[in-house]
Amino acid sequence: MLIVFGDSHAHIWGGSVVSALQGTPAFPAVKVNYLGPALAYNLMSDESLLGKWGAEIIRHPDVSSENTSAIMLSFGEIDCRTQVVKRAARKKISIREVCSQIAERYLALVDELRKVTDVPIILWGPIATTPAAQNWDENFPNVGSEVERNSATRELSTLLQQGSERSAGAVSYTHLRAHETDSY
């Protein structure tokens, strides 16, 4: 069984459209564990300890279940949409530096997962951000310009892919590029 942990984008692996979530996954060999609006940054703490979401994943019974054949982590979209540009401006650092901090925490959680399971771990990268809505939506805020948010998405995706390549096959990184969906 594929076990998916993540924010609302994790639901697509159960056969739901994010805007029309179903309660039960459409695929019998997939179990989605929706953690709410979870940030990749909060998977680990500043002290390199498990963060709120990382601890919830590590202690989840599905991680060590004999029925689990792979684990997918689906985080980063909220970070790119609401946090990266804000943190870069506040700390006076680049978007890449902020994304590097997020990727380090994300990959540190993978290292912790490797200690408790030997099943494949798949990282699902964040998707490109949509143009800013005409009206502000407090439930789905956008911080920064569309170009800045998509730069953050590209940077985080690149860093996660590079990190997964260093894991010698223990981690897979996947990301659907915009041009791959143009015909749909």
- Largest sheet properties: 5 strands, parallel
Distance between the termini: 28 Å
Report the uncertain regions: 176-184
Total helical elements: 4
What portion of residues belong to β-strands?
A: 5-15%
Q: What gross morphology would you assign?
A: globular
Mean pLDDT: 84
Percent in helix: 25-40%
In total, how many beta strands? Answer: 5
Computed Rg? 16 Å
Query: Structural class given helices, strands, pairing?
Result: alpha/beta
Q: What topology, given as strand order, has the largest sheet?
A: 2-1-3-4-5
Write the H/E string, N to C. Answer: EEHEHHEHE
Q: Which helices and strands, and how do they pair?
A:
Blueprint: E1 2-6, E2 30-34, H1 52-58, E3 70-74, H2 77-91, H3 95-116, E4 121-124, H4 146-166, E5 171-174
Parallel strand pairs: 1-2, 1-3, 3-4, 4-5
